[in-house]
From TrEMBL:
Pfam family, one: META
Keyword terms: Signal
Signal sequence bounds: 1-19
Alphabetized PROSITE patterns for the sequence: PROKAR_LIPOPROTEIN
Identification of the protein by name: DUF306 domain-containing protein
Domain DUF306: 33-138, 151-258
Superkingdom per UniProt: Bacteria
Taxonomic classification: Bacteria, Pseudomonadati, Bacteroidota, Bacteroidia, Bacteroidales
């Protein structure tokens, strides 16, 4: 009888322990990292910057993107499915613009290199180092709302992968005809024409199709080549921090930046 009671007590305590572990594991797994997060503090110091740095996490593709405070960044990460709460970032690349204040950006990039885990907070997430210290404090980023109808009209292609397009003989641009689901423009040398479509149920999806161009040769064809390649990778659009339209690839990387044309019409 005594042995039976001891066995029952053992299994009961073991069951409680397993339940507790399972609950803890489920709680960690319930943290959804998907989406974009403002970086509101670095190593406990509140971020004071004109452009709020942020990161976006593509859990399916294991890719990270965002802005470190000046430059756009892209890279990869690993999240351990067997150990919830573990994450580390691979090499993160950035564009090479110079801004008046590079201090915040340098701190953000250093902190990303130190990240080994994450933990949920009342207002968002903490990215932690190997000792569990919070090196980045994140809060969910509200993505500015933009619809397909907002794309109507002419847009100057002002940047490619975050690098500003220099002055050219012909301004690269793209114009959207929403009713006809057609686009036309200029890639910097040649006239381009084509169509676009959206995935059903995805209001911010965008895919160009049947894009054709004239065949003229110009002194600088490199910019045109980059624009045409980028158009082929576009899967969506949003507003970026500068309130310009960002054309995004599958990983959420801003491949082309569009600025509304407010000058003379570029279509001739």
């Amino acid at each position: 009888m005594k042995k039976t009671m001891l066995k029952a007590a053992f299994f009961l305590s073991a069951g409680v322990w397993m339940t507790a572990c399972g609950s803890s594991k489920q709680a960690a797994q319930a943290i959804d990292l998907t989406g974009e997060w403002n970086i509101v503090a670095v190593n406990g110091e509140k971020v004071q910057a004109a452009n709020m740095p942020y990161i976006g996490l593509d859990m399916k593709g294991k890719k990270v993107y965002g802005n470190a405070g000046c430059n756009r960044m892209t890279g990869t990460f690993e999240a351990d499915s067997l150990q919830p709460g573990k994450i580390s970032f691979g090499q993160v690349g950035t564009t090479r613009m110079m801004c008046p204040d590079m201090d915040t950006e340098n701190k953000v990039l250093q902190a990303l290199n130190a990240v080994k885990g994450y933990a949920q907070t009342e207002t968002g997430l903490n990215m932690t180092d190997a000792e569990g210290k919070a090196v980045l404090t994140l809060e969910k980023r509200e993505t500015p709302v933009i619809t397909l109808n907002d794309l109507a009209g002419e847009w100057v292609i002002s940047a490619i992968y975050g690098v500003r397009v220099g002055k050219m003989d012909k301004t690269p641009f793209i114009a959207f005809d929403i009713a006809q689901k057609r686009v036309h423009g200029n890639a910097g040398c040649n006239i381009i024409n084509g169509g676009f479509s959206q995935e059903e149920g995805k209001a911010n999806s965008l895919k160009f199709s049947q894009m054709i161009s004239t065949m003229m040769a110009c002194p600088d064809m490199d910019t045109e080549r980059q624009i045409l390649e980028a158009l082929g990778k576009v899967t969506g659009f949003s507003l970026n921090q500068e309130q310009a339209v960002a054309l995004l690839d599958e990983a959420g990387t801003e491949v082309l930046t569009l600025t509304k044309n407010t000058d003379e019409p570029l279509t001739k």
